[in-house]
Design a protein that fits this description.
The structure is a homohexamer. Chain A is mainly alpha-helical. Helix content of chain A is about 50%, strand content about 5%. In chain A, helix 1 packs antiparallel against helix 3. The longest helix of chain A has 28 residues, at about 55-80. The first copy, chain A, starts with a strand and ends in a 6-residue tail after the last helix. Chains in contact: A-B, A-C, A-D, A-E, A-F, B-C, B-D, B-E, B-F, C-D, C-E, C-F, D-E, D-F, E-F. Chains A, B, C, D, E, F: Its cofactor is Mn(2+). Chains A, B, C, D, E, F: Belongs to the manganese catalase family. Chains A, B, C, D, E, F: Keywords: Manganese, Metal-binding.
Chain lengths: ~280, ~280, ~280, ~280, ~280, ~280
């Protein structure tokens, strides 16, 4: 179960409120690279963890940390929407001030739906979607999902860092960027602990590889037509990363048949012509 | 631009049609681990590729291969829904055969909406959602997103392999599982080519690390209350994977303040009591 | 504005309640081919209608009729979920009756969320999505959208007709199928009234055709590789349907350049290697 | 910020695992009446709370409790999917055991996507959607949103109670139902503390009522056609609940005009006929 | 069934068209607080109503009224998008006028997709989502859902009132705000008619309370760590609102066990290390 | 299977990059009228095609062409976001340039999530949704779905043409508009080949018309109340388009009963008052 503290994990300060930056911050709350996603992803991975108990525990700890990041960002949104600063005051002193602020780039729903607070949505107002909570039951797959989340998350935080001049906001982002640095490493450290590429690949490593069609397991299939240069690299030559094969280049051709489906069954109510196999020019 | 062949990349054969398996196959078409996602993900990464041209080319080639995987799976769905096999014939010979088939575990929309064919949806009928198309503009982040897609995709294909006895379907899955093996390696090979952990971490590696709060960049924050065992591992000790720091354990406490928001602004129409800072027991 | 009657537009009778059929009926309520969609589509087209007033009026009338179809189908769902029939009684007499019924193919949310009534969702429980409400502002485009809705809607109703033996349900569907027949004609009658193909094509017909690249306005582009048979038909020869050109076959080749994007801008935080244009094998 | 404990808030025990019940439990995790929603709703209301600080604090406390309810339910799902019980063992001993289990009513994605664990989705596999996180910035509106969530949530838990015979699951549900009882009261207690109907209505009570069209503020508008009985009740007579008016019955007629929109502007590319105001029969 | 009138329920007049306000109005059409939601919610509650017939009738009447509110708002959107006013004319007289208008804060899809008319979406262009149509089958739960919809709806209308200077728009909003006042009261009047808190709580009141864990039915669980002040209020003391208990404060501790899941079953294809219970540091 | 070329189907040139136009172009990529939809729609129709093989082939060819249109538009987005032009340079030379560009009308996620590239979303950032991929199994219904897609798609392209002054962008749109012209004709040519209205109506034409309630198959139901003018036209008189009936006007009245549902079943946990059929005023 869970407990809370009445303080933030790290200080959140806004020197010059900017309703437009409040919109951008939504991406870090409810976006696919955001904190709701990592929080729920780590917690669901923990809740369903099977195997060595310490990974459940590790995931719980970091998932719990991330709830606090949502709190920090939601606080930052609310502070950026406050009318106390001179900049916003000026906007609100104009002829019809609310609509000016609304139309100057803020998320209208932060006002219309939330009365000047954060939403569970991204920077375009698209609601958080639970399908991004990856918890596959396979530890290595989940670790890569987590690295992805933290890599795109850190890219997002760096871009937000670029999009503000506010010292308070930059300070908060310095903290969040550093945490993303750690979390990228943390999930990759699990991969290392599991034996690296040779210990984990192919994922899932519990499926017997002899069951797969080994003829094509290390072939780079090239689908370019004549005239397109082959993109060669580490993936077209040398030992495979799992140590079990050699990369090869293969200009791929169909290995399969021309697909032929049965005529429509009567209950599916295609057009008669489909069922009779006729068409206008026959 | 693109071209097509009238043959499948690999043979698709269904010995004993099973409308229930046709439902499960939908996960590999329109699910978050499925082929629509990887196809569009690689193509969008290619379309937006900036930097060395060969990565665009490599992504185009594999993205194009994946269109053919959607085709294979959609063909497999259609064949599993056909009434030609004795098993399905029996089901359709019952009193009210369509409803029996529908209710025996198939996706009702494969009949109701598609007249016995595949949908752009997952195994629960949830439509494919474009937010899963990750193309971050950062090559390393994208490679980890691709590894994740292929790792969860291979886990899915292995589970589907387990869920059918049909020799034709098992044969098709052997091929797809092998391709997932290759594709996991392919994206990790790019990471290796870029210099591995030291060449890529922290992602994005173009953000100056001195801008982040280095004090907490390698700290494992432990949020468990007293009595919870600390989950130690590679992530709590030793050199960080980027070679720039040392992992540390940190039983975290709030570094921030108690958040205080301004009273509601009048135009936000909170309750009067909120604006006056009073409550019933004051 | 709108008014209601306390009677149904057409009789809804269920002789033998079947919770499984109640699930299938959801597709006709909240599915993409369903009545919520056509109802809202016609009403939104009416609400935004510009041009001859009679089309607004005609759309209002049919949109209003469709609200009553939602009512009929929701009533049919509720009646199919009732415990009064012997069939359902038997199911509920089993050991743990609710779970048996739930697991025998009904939509669990009709019980869990609605207490045995209809939902605003499709047959897989996916909620109705307003993006299917097409109202383009172009009358001809909207008429084709409406024909599509009624064509897929009638196919759905015919398939539902096949999926039940209940005389009451079949009677209700006979009515709905007939209405779909009429509505297909109604929207095509508008096209005819507007002058048919020559009066409406290309849609929108108010864009000056000389502004488009007329060289390719009647070419069937064939993208098959060598060995794929050309699919010839009405679309590869003869006068175009708008009477302004001749159909032609064109085995298409790229008319454009190889796309070259600028290097990543620094603020986008790509990997350094992308920005420097280097990769591991250089 | 937040902390966790390695124990559950209340004991979760499954005596006889049932993969079908694991599907139903999903509604209480990711459904609109579920724990993800209440958890996030209370936390977002807390994060954006303006006005008396104690309400923020109260919301934090209960929002934090709800994270633990997600944990309990996700644990219950995982336990219901375990192969250790004889019942499930038998299912898995059949010819093709996985597909039998999958097709016997479980959520296929609990296996295919999660490897036998909970998802962030509802009982139909529809992902949790953040638009259900209501945090309006108005305390009274939020309290009613919370009562709604707990009322539908308790109805759901009662229905789940009915849908299982498992003593462990019934025990867990007894706890969750009791908590829903408390939480309904808790939010209504805030309304009482704010002065009940007279202290809170109309919500928001900070909008000057004289600005609204008081002529229709207490009228029950009856839209039935002739022959429909008027539904009279507390809402058609007596003092209004805010004490500021009298309920009245009003058989409503249009007070507005026939809407007339301007012709389409040229850049909107309607059909020419719309722009010219002509139609085929003119 | 339903009928329509060619007049609006209340006059809709736009003195100075403002495409930006047309975007904000979308929230009142397709947003979670909007008219599509209340319209469909009341109608679905009516369609599935079981118990005293007058509630079905009352819901039908108000649901039907709400269709007319969608019509009013959609008309208001269309009028705000019209080029007839001097203000918009000026914008359209600029160099590239359409893009200026588009970029000045309007919803681009009102032009691109609808040709200057309303969409079935919210102020951020997110399509209406049917999962917000609450019809739980429990009358009291539904009444609170309806109060919530009207409370957030009235807050939204008040905020829109603040966001426009247009006399016509303000006049229309005065009407809609007044109707929301009435509708809040109407649903609460049903609660009063049912006996108020004692007659309805806990919802559902048909579940035998002795089946729930009465020990925790009136406890406010406090989850704050040491140092966090307890938020006391009406919910921590005094008689419970249902008259059946006493509120208590309870600084909650885990009552449950540490969750232990079985190892992964082989068919779920976890990593080998999970199945063997080993990790790199063992 | 599929192949690619390293050149674009048609030249994509941007003379003056405009990040705001990059947002509008998203509608043509991931919007309901966009290229992802037509591409996937034609391919899924092909993959599931039953009946004359040439239609599968024709659909494959055009579906494959459309992948190249996504590529063109994604390239156009990326070029519009580039900092190389003087116009964008100026914006980026301002005080805090990124936020200015972001707030000047561009899609913030093109920067935050994609690092200056296209997304699989529409002009409001709403992700592409697979439910728009219509493939009904009925050839005529699908052809009308395709005409709709190309009619709304061409209207969109014309509106985009209006929204830019850039010669390169206008040139690209001239090509795409011309292709939409052809594709509208192509799908209507199939209808003609199938025998036009008489050969295809009512869709599906394989359902025996005598099974439908022929009494109402050609009746225009008028639902306006007294005082509303009847909208007469081609649909109220003359021979029906399928040649099998006569259009008629019918001022519709209820043909059905007043719906009466059974009382709630106990396990559905309605309020007691519903189950007892009582209410407060009885």
């Amino acid at each position: 179960m869970f407990y809370y503290d009445n303080k933030l994990q790290y200080q959140v300060r806004v020197d010059t409120p900017d309703p437009r930056f409040a919109r951008l911050l939504q991406q870090a709350i409810g976006g696919v690279e955001g904190e709701m996603r990592v929080c729920l992803q780590y917690l669901f991975q923990a809740f369903g963890a099977r195997g060595p108990a310490k990974y459940r525990n590790m995931l719980m700890s970091t998932g719990t940390e991330e709830i606090g990041h949502i709190e920090m960002l939601a606080t930052a949104v609310a502070l950026n929407l406050e009318g106390s600063s001179s900049r916003v005051k000026d906007e609100f002193a104009a002829n019809n001030p609310v609509v000016e602020a609304l139309m100057g780039g803020m998320d209208p729903r932060q006002y219309l739906s939330a009365g000047m607070a954060a939403l569970a949505s991204d920077a375009n107002g698209v609601p958080f979607n639970g399908s991004h909570v990856y918890a596959s039951g396979n530890l290595a797959a989940d670790m890569y999902a987590n690295v992805t989340a933290e890599a795109t998350g850190r890219a997002l935080a760096c871009r937000l860092f670029e999009a503000t001049d506010d010292p308070g906001m930059k300070d908060m982002l310095r903290f969040l960027i550093a945490r993303d640095t750690m979390h990228q490493q943390q999930w990759l450290a699990v991969i290392e602990e599991l034996g690296g590429h040779k210990g984990t690949l192919p994922i899932p490593n519990s499926f017997p590889v002899e069951e797969e069609l080994r003829d094509v397991s290390y072939d780079y299939f090239f689908t370019g037509v004549e005239g397109v240069e082959v993109p060669s690299g580490r993936w077209t030559q040398g030992q495979s990363l799992d140590g079990m094969g050699e990369f090869r280049l293969n200009a791929v051709k169909p290995m399969g048949q021309e697909p032929k489906l049965a005529p429509p069954m009567p209950q599916a109510y295609a057009e008669k012509q489909q069922m009779e196999g006729t068409s206008g020019d026959d």
